[in-house]
Amino acid sequence: MTRDTQRRGEELRTHILFVAKSVFLEAGFERASMDTVATRAGTSKRSLYAHFESKDKLFLAVLDLVRELYLGKLMTPAAYADEPAEAVTRFCGRFQQLILWEPQVRTCRLSISVAERLPGSAHAYFDAVFAATHERLRDYLAQNYELDAASVAEDLLARTTLPRLYRTLLAVAEPLTEEPDEKALAGHVDLDAIRRVVTATLPDRR
After folding, report:
1. DSSP category for residue 206
2. Of the candidates 189, 192, 29, 201, the residue with the CA atom closest to the CA atom of residue 97
3. In CATH, which of 2.60.40.1940, 3.40.220.10, 1.10.287.1700, 1.10.357.10 is domain 62-201?
4. Which of 21, 81, 131, 133 allows an S-S link to 87, with CB 3.0 to 4.6 Å?
5. Which of 33, 42, 35 is nearest to 15 (CA)?
6. How confident is the model over 60-82, as pLDDT tens digits?
7. What are φ and ψ of residue 190, in 5° steps?
């Protein structure tokens, strides 16, 4: 296989994943078909199956793509501010903003809907979004505070995000429909409320 052929193969695989992501979100797992993905991607079923041997494998690969896109947008707490408490505040706010964005809410619902049939996919989504976020916050807290970083990170994420997420998943509250641009963070989430939780939880570093 030449380098050009390999690159074209990688580009097609990535293209298929973005198309499949849209198909799964629009149709749901059960109604989404490999035929539809192939047609929408402008490729043959033979080519599609050469990259992904089953719909299950394709769905898991889509979740890997979701993880890559999500973590690229989330970054780490250190990227948001120099002062640790403010960095944690904005990181938790950014997590809430991203997880409440409509496509992400639909992805979460989709993963829940197939959890019994494909428990591996639900685990993959949890690891991609929740576990990875917890890990980044835990590591930052461990570097900047003397505390039980793992439990404090879990507590902060739960208190600042889960109530609103639950309401959104159950359609009690509306998801965010605008692109979750970091510049719009203050308009999408209540940073003051998150700041109060963070300030009350983290020890004074002075």
Report:
1. -
2. 189
3. 1.10.357.10
4. 81
5. 42
6. 899 888 889 999 999 999 999 99
7. -90, 85
